[in-house]
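Pilot study result, target chain (83 residues):
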Amino acid sequence: MASSGAALFPRLAADLEVAPILPTRTQLAISAVYEPPPGLVCRAADGALLHRVAEATLKDFLERVATRLAERAGDERPASVSG
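Predicted structure:
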């Protein structure tokens, strides 16, 4: 059972998909569900800022994963992340 304080924070659940396209190309995809914290004030703040923060966090995470995979494969840099 989650503590009552957990409802004060936004929730973000995501699935990361890694799929080969070509022998030298891999596609990374992330699918996420963002739930703002409850309450009218929180939802207003969410509309202004928190939703964009969640999107930026996911994009940054995906870029870091792509960079690590490219480094391990010996590539100089990964292809850009679209978003």
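One observation from the pilot: The beta strands are 11-22, 25-35. A full batch analysis is planned for the follow-on phase.
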